Amino acid sequence: MAARIVLGVSGGIAAYKVASLLRLYREAGHEVDVIPTPNSLEFVGRATWEALSGRQVTESVFQEIDSVRHVRLGQEADLVVVAPATADILARAATGQSNDLLTATLLTAHCPVVFAPAMHTEMWLHPATQANVATLRSRGVTVLDPADGRLTGKDSGPGRLPEPAELFEKTSAILAASLNQRATATHNQSGAASSSSGIDGAESSPDAARPLEGRIVTISAGGTREPLDPVRFLGNRSSGRQGVAIAQAARDAGADVRFVAAHMDIPTPDGVILTTASTALELRDAVFEAARGADILIMNAAVADFRPSEYADTKIKKKDDVADPVIHLVRNPDILAEVVAERNANDFSTLPPLIVGFAAETGDAETSVVEHGAAKLARKGCEMLVVNQVGSSLVFGQDTNSVTILSADGTQPVEFSGTKTSVAQVLIETIAARVDSLDK
């Protein structure tokens, strides 16, 4: 669906990447008004933005005064995206300044607003920047986490602008959710007009961009490691990417996120309450603790099914005159099933009413991946199960995923393929709809 997008560009070197983002928006059929800050024009000139957008570009509130453009742009936008978002623009937005066309537009926007930060690591991690980010998020603004990678010069770390394709996909999902929510609200309003209740459905609906506002979501992620000796362990290929994406999506949807992290190849997300665990036994204790009082539990962690029955205090040596060691394994607890069982056994349980499991499956000659998942959903007793096929080059460590979301209540399965970021957004939207149905 075509929409009106305001694309703000602040003064960072990453501004050159935003030209590709603009092209993606235009190819999708959207109308895009580019608002550069004066400093950003030192990196990418006005002519580039006008050529790619097909529209006049200005950064001043003193142009097109007769149309009150500094108010009209924000009022008429369906989405505002600021990329790159420098520390300066985050600070000015957080404090409500209005000293150029972009900040004035931010103050008049009624639509979802998304910031894509890009700056040096020290600037991103500075307490002032983090406080500004927290302030914006508390107001319902989406502030994406920057990527971790090469920065200007020889520096590397968190602060890199995500790639244009990733920004396009994530912001498009936010836009689609907002447009769908608006359509639903319009429908509810028309229905309410003929209802004697006098209740406006739009007012009772959650914000489109924050459907989990006020909810507590506990998420486990990463892979457990079961030690064999001080050097070796049994583990799995989980990188934690999908769990991090889910935590970010839940956080951006307004939830208070408790994040239980096993071993991960990437940094934990900002804006969450973090608990770390290494082994399956440690993860079980951490999950039970973090899940109490939560509304939703999402068990994304890849938990080892088995662990060595004995731990060697010293490194196991390879010796020619000694037979090869035999490793005996014992079964690890089924954390998902235990949480469900304890909750169901207690009418006054503080464990979440909505529990979502993950099933990393491989099919065989007799049974498909989804059939294995459906059987697991029945065994575990949770409300939802996310099934994905795994393998040496599938899911683990990759940027993409293909999932089928199964529901115990018989709701039609949701199938989706895409980046792990987009999969996380679809999952959170599906969960938010399920939570709403439980409340009714």
From TrEMBL:
Keyword Ligase: yes
Record region (Phosphopantothenate--cysteine ligase): 217-440
Signal sequence region: none
Enzyme Commission numbers on file: 4.1.1.36, 6.3.2.5
Ranges for region Phosphopantothenoylcysteine decarboxylase: 1-216
Record flagged with keyword Calcium: no
Positions with biased composition (Low complexity): 190-205
Stated role: Catalyzes two sequential steps in the biosynthesis of coenzyme A. In the first step cysteine is conjugated to 4'-phosphopantothenate to form 4-phosphopantothenoylcysteine. In the second step the latter compound is decarboxylated to form 4'-phosphopantotheine.
Name of the protein described by the UniProt record: Coenzyme A biosynthesis bifunctional protein CoaBC
Gene transcribed to yield this protein: coaBC
